[in-house]
TrEMBL record:
UniProt entry keywords in alphabetical sequence: DNA damage, DNA recombination, DNA repair
Keyword DNA damage set for record: yes
Protein purpose: Involved in DNA repair and RecF pathway recombination.
Protein name, UniProt field: DNA repair protein RecO
HAMAP family: RecO (MF_00201)
Residue ranges of every copy of the DNA replication/recombination mediator RecO N-terminal domain listed in the record: 1-77
GO cellular component, one term: bacterial nucleoid
The organism of origin for this protein: Paenibacillus methanolicus
Lineage: Bacteria, Bacillati, Bacillota, Bacilli, Bacillales
One Gene Ontology biological process: double-strand break repair
InterPro entries referenced in this protein's UniProt entry, alphabetically: ARFGAP/RecO (IPR037278), DNA_rep/recomb_RecO_N (IPR022572), NA-bd_OB-fold (IPR012340), RecO (IPR003717), RecO_C (IPR042242)
Family statement: Belongs to the RecO family.
Length: 249
């Protein structure tokens, strides 16, 4: 059967003599593995379609398992994301997270739009840490672990300061935070942003100005949530951590 999809390349590996297998996040067919024959040859018409982060139109045949590309066109190459070390690191994390965290049935048109916007925002030079945190929240929502930052998970209180409890799937108020010794006390600024992330669509993300200490706290909060609920040991994550250490020294 022939498929014509819009897709984002979220994984690309060498296969045999000169070929590549890409994993596409598509707008209509979830995640799809497609062989691009001759992609590594210098004169290949389809070589650039096999590059990580490429947004394109892909036409492929598939009966079962892997598809075979017959034709494709680049819509947006996202080459900027493959050039700088930092941008590549963030975009790789978003791609790998999408590839590994989402089950087939969770990968629909909505996440395609979110990842497309995530790549676009990175390319436009918006704050990569904020973009990635927002994207992580979208992944948590899609996998059924949407955190509740509005209401204390223990008593239902909605006012006052809150601590993040990944285990409780949201926040605990000052009366209840003792219930989770690992709970992370949030500042007003951090709480406000987390609440905003839940309401915000990647497609509408503007330029957000966040104080460094708030960003640091948000990073800790997101790490706890991702480790507790997604718990993947991603290569791109460890690379981001190394980069972090390096830039802080
Ligand atoms: Zn409470």
């Amino acid at each position: 059967m022939q498929y014509r999809v819009e897709g984002l390349v979220i994984r690309s590996i060498d296969y045999g003599e000169g070929n590549k297998i890409v994993t596409l996040l598509t707008n209509t067919q979830g995640k799809a593995g497609v062989i691009i024959r001759g992609a590594k040859k210098a004169k290949s018409r389809h070589g650039s379609l096999a590059q990580l982060f490429t947004h394109g139109e892909f036409i492929f045949f598939r009966n079962t398992g892997l598809g075979t590309l017959t034709h494709g066109e680049i819509i947006e190459s996202h080459h900027v994301l493959r050039e700088g070390l930092e941008l590549t690191a963030y975009a790789s994390y978003a791609a790998e997270l999408t590839d590994r965290a989402l089950q087939e049935e969770e990968a629909g048109a909505y996440v395609f739009e979110q990842l497309k916007s995530c790549f676009a925002a990175l390319q436009e030079g918006k704050d990569p840490e904020i973009i990635i945190q927002l994207y992580e929240i979208k992944i948590l929502e899609l996998t059924g672990y949407a955190p509740d930052f509005e209401t204390c998970a223990s008593c239902g209180n909605v006012v006052g300061s809150m601590a993040l409890s990944a285990r409780a799937g949201g926040v605990l108020c000052s009366r209840c935070s003792y219930r989770d010794p690992q709970a992370l006390q949030l500042t007003d600024g951090a709480l406000k942003l987390l609440r905003l992330y839940r309401r915000m669509d990647m497609r509408r993300m503007g330029q957000v100005q966040v104080k460094p200490e708030t960003k640091k706290l948000l990073k800790q909060a997101m790490r706890q949530l991702m480790d507790t609920h997604v718990g993947l040991n991603l290569k791109s994550r460890s690379f981001l951590d190394q980069l972090d250490k390096y830039t802080m020294e």
